[in-house]
Amino acid sequence: MCAKILLVFIGVVGMISCKQPEVKETGPRSVKVAKAVPLNVVEKSFSGVVSPDQFSDLAFKMSGPLIVLNVEEGQRVKKGQVVAEIDPLDYRLQYEAKKSSYLTAKSQMERSEKLIRKQAISRQDYESTQASYANAKAAYENAVNTLEETKLLAPFDGFIQKKYVENYQKVQAGEGIVCLINPDKLLVRFTLPENNMQYLLSEPQIYIEFENYKGKLFRARIKEYVEASQDGSGVPVSLYVEDSAFNLNDYKVATGFSCRIILKITREGFENYVLVPLTALFPDPHTEELNVFVYDETTQKLEKRTVKEGGLIGRDQVVVQEGLRAGETVVSAGTTRLVDGQTVNVLTE
């Protein structure tokens, strides 16, 4: 069916060409051009967004009223910096009580150790004192940790993406206080349509083009993907940028930035085939062979070249089996009355 359509198209163009004699034009004409795309490489692109690879919703392990909230959204913090603090009064009282009990138990333990060496107390009494000391020590150490945990510290360098609460608010154990993000550890997330899953499984070359650095491609690799589409929207995929040319000092990329993900898949058996727009082909009025005009970017001149087609792809693309190489530029619109060796101007969109 595709071959019949192509023949009809070529026949119509041939009839039109026969009716119009060749005219040699002296001035440059304007034409549209397109690249010959290799058929052995399939390229798919998807929209993605930059996301943090390291982030944490910071929370207290105990409840209480906030008395300090030292940060604002967007603020940078250092590892170990105090982000927030809850009222430590009750926990300090518990600490003092546990400390007193521990010091008493410690003193009794030291006394029992002297007495057991002199065999002045029984082994049973010594072990009872030893157990009391161990319990008091554990309770004291727990009280020390609890008091320290009334201060919420940043676990890594980063910036505050979001505040969930306000100062002087009573918070519960485990309730998020702020979201901390490490801006130096980024990944890219995108959703792959279910019918494109085979491209991900065929070990593609993966590139990322950031919206604010158009034309610059960075190599990437898959971090992880979910082998299911839970809500029917597609397969979530996470990528790492893995390119020695990429660093955050030279390329200002941050969480939330848009980007384009490009998957390139190589297929065997089509190494010499290329794909061009159907409108690039035209029949020679004398030989009826199919031709294209190849554009030389250096000289801005055209070369008329005979090609062998291999059928339609979709509605407006045609396979060229011979006569063109991948990457060559052909005239895709405006071929009428062009001649071999003519100088042209390329229209840019």
TrEMBL record:
Example of a GO MF term: efflux transmembrane transporter activity
Alphabetical UniProt keywords: Transport
One annotated Gene Ontology cellular component of this protein: efflux pump complex
SUPFAM superfamilies (alphabetical): HlyD-like secretion proteins (SSF111369)
Taxonomy, superkingdom: Bacteria
Main subcellular location of this protein, as a coarse class: other
Annotated ranges, domain Multidrug resistance protein MdtA-like C-terminal permuted SH3: 272-334
Xref: PROSITE patterns: PROKAR_LIPOPROTEIN
Pfam families: BSH_RND, RND-MFP_C
NCBIfam families with a match to the protein in the record: RND_mfp (TIGR01730)
Protein name as catalogued: Efflux transporter, RND family, MFP subunit
Natural source organism: Odoribacter laneus YIT 12061
